[in-house]
C-alpha cells in the first residue's frame, strides 16, 4: 500500500482495499476455521474409534479366557470386522492362536499366527514367527519351522531361536546341526537347560578315535 499524507486518505485506501479483497479474506478465514474444526472432529472420531476397539478387544479376549462357547466365533468376527485396526487384529490373532494351541488345534493355530505375522509392529511379527515355528515343528513340518526361525533377526531373540532350532534339528535327526545351534544359543545367553541338551548329545566321533 502507498504512503498517504493524511489519515483520511489512509481510511479511503483501506476501504477500497477491503472492498476489493474482503471476500477473499473472509473465505480464507472460513476455510481455515473449517479445516481446523474438521481436523479436531477427525481426531475426536479417531480417538473414539480406538477406545471402542480397545473395549471390544478386551471383551472378546476375556470370553476366550472365560471359556465362552462362542469365544472363537467372537474373536474371528472381531478380526474380520476390524481389519483396519492392524495392531488389534494381530493381538487378537495371537490370542486366538494361543487358544487353538491349548485345545490342540494346531493347524488352526498356525493360520492365526500367519495373520499376526502381517503386523507392521516388529515385536508382534517376531512373536508370531517364533510361535508359528514351534507349531510347525509340532506338526512335523520341520523345514517350514526352520524357515520361520530364519525370519527372526533381532539379537535379543538369538538364544531362544537357536535353542528351538537345535530342538528341531535334533528331531530331524541332524545331531551335528543341533549341536551347533545349542552352542550358538549358549553363546548368546547362558542357559543350564540348553547346556543339558548339549551335554546329552552323543559326542562327535573323529576318524582318529579308537
UniProtKB/TrEMBL annotation:
UniProt keywords (A-Z) are: Cell membrane, Chaperone, Membrane, Transmembrane, Transmembrane helix
Entry annotated with the keyword Membrane: yes
Q: What is its main location?
A: membrane
What InterPro entries has UniProt attached to this entry?
SecYEG/CpoB_TPR, TPR-like_helical_dom_sf, YfgM
Q: Where in the cell is it found?
A: Cell membrane
Pfam families the record matches: TPR_21
- Does the keyword Transmembrane belong to this entry? yes
- All copies of domain Ancillary SecYEG translocon subunit/Cell division coordinator CpoB TPR, residue ranges: 15-202
What GO CC terms are in its UniProt record? Answer: plasma membrane
Membrane topology according to the record: Single-pass type II membrane protein
Q: Which GO MF terms are attached to this record?
A: protein-containing complex binding
Similarity-based family? Belongs to the YfgM family.
The protein depicted here goes by the name Ancillary SecYEG translocon subunit
**The organism of origin for this protein:** Candidatus Enterovibrio altilux
Task: Give the source lineage, highest ranks first.
Answer: Bacteria, Pseudomonadati, Pseudomonadota, Gammaproteobacteria, Vibrionales
Amino acid at each position: 500500500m502507498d504512503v498517504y499524507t493524511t489519515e483520511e486518505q489512509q481510511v479511503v485506501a483501506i476501504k477500497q482495499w477491503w472492498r476489493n479483497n474482503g471476500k477473499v479474506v473472509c473465505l480464507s478465514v472460513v476455510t481455515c476455521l473449517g479445516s481446523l474444526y474438521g481436523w479436531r472432529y477427525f481426531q475426536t472420531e479417531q480417538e473414539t474409534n480406538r477406545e471402542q476397539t480397545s473395549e471390544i478387544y478386551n471383551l472378546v479376549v476375556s470370553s476366550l479366557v472365560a471359556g465362552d462357547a462362542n469365544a472363537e466365533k467372537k474373536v474371528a468376527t472381531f478380526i474380520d470386522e476390524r481389519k483396519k485396526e492392524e495392531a488389534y487384529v494381530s493381538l487378537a490373532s495371537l490370542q486366538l492362536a494361543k487358544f487353538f494351541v491349548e485345545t490342540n488345534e494346531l493347524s488352526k493355530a498356525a493360520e492365526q499366527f500367519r495373520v499376526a505375522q502381517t503386523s507392521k509392529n516388529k515385536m508382534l511379527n517376531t512373536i508370531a514367527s517364533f510361535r508359528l515355528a514351534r507349531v510347525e515343528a509340532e506338526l512335523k513340518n520341520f523345514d517350514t519351522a526352520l524357515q520361520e526361525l530364519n525370519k527372526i533377526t533381532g539379537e535379543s531373540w538369538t538364544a531362544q531361536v537357536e535353542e528351538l532350532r537345535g530342538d528341531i534339528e535334533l528331531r530331524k535327526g541332524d545331531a551335528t546341526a543341533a549341536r551347533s545351534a545349542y552352542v550358538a544359543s549358549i553363546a548368546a545367553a547362558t542357559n543350564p537347560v540348553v547346556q543339558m541338551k548339549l551335554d546329552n548329545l552323543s559326542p562327535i566321533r573323529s576318524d582318529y578315535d579308537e
